[in-house]
Amino acid sequence: MRFDEGYSGKVFIMSRPSYEEADAIIYGMPMDWTVSFRPGSRFGPNRIREASIGLEEYSPYMDRHLEEIHYYDAGDIPLPFGNPERSLDMIRDYVRKILAMDKFPLGLGGEHLVTWPIVQAVYEKYPDMALIHIDAHADLRLEYEGEELSHSTPVRKICELIGPENVYSFGIRSGMREEFEYARTSGMYMAKYDVAEPLRKVMPSLQGRNVYVTIDIDVLDPAFAPGTGTAEAGGISSRELLEAIRLIAKSDVRVIGADLVEVAPAYDPTEKTPIAASKFVREMILGWVK
Description:
Belongs to the arginase family. Agmatinase subfamily. The protein is of the alpha/beta class.
C-alpha cells in the first residue's frame, strides 16, 4: 500500500515488501507549511531513510535485530503543498487505516503539527490513551500570529482532546510564560530541561496504559542536531534520548504508535541530525513494536 505504486526512492533499512504482513507501518509526512522560523522539515523523512542505510541492523541497546520485526515503509503521504487543513485530514485518514488493521503507526515528519491528526485517529481507537511528548518546546499555544493551525499548538490541542492529566512532556526549555503557567495549573506533567531521569520517575504511574510517543528532534542540543527548524541551546545529548527510548521499551506501558519530527536537513551539512534520527527510529522499532 504505497502512496505511489511507481515509487523507486529510499526506504528505511530492512523494510519488508508486504504491507499486509507488516506489524508496523513507517510513513512520511513531508509538511512544513506552518513553521514560524526556518522551513525545510518536509525533506526530513527521506533524509532519515537515506541515513538509515549506514545503520547496523542489530541494536546493543535492545539486544534485538531488525529482522525480528516485520515493518513496511509506505513512503510519504502526498500532502498538498501549502494547505495545512487538507494535509492534516489526509494524515488522519491514513493513520485510521493503519489502526483499523491493528498495525503500529510510525510517522516521520515534517513539522510538529502533524502529530495532532495522528493523535485524533489514535484517540478514536484508544480513548484511554496517554501522550509522552519529548521536545524542546512546550507547543501549548492556542495560536501563533492568529493561526490556530501552527507547529506551536499541537500539544495544547491534544490536552483539550484527551485531557491534560494524560499528557506528559519532557525536555521542555522554551515557550511563552502563559504556556508554562498552563502546564502548571492544568494538571498535565511537564519536566523542564531533562528527559531520562524524570521519565524514569514517571513510568510507574503509566504502567499498563496505552501510550503514544512523539519526539521532536530539537529536544537535542544543537551540538547533536543542528538540522532542525527551531534549534534551542541547552538541550539533551543523543545518549540521553537513546536512554529515554530504552526506558519506555523496558517499561510496562503499551506503546500504540509514535512519530519523530522536525528534522530539517538543509541546516546540517554534516548530516549528523538525520544520522541520529535514523538511529532513534531503529530503536523505536526494536523497542516499541511488539
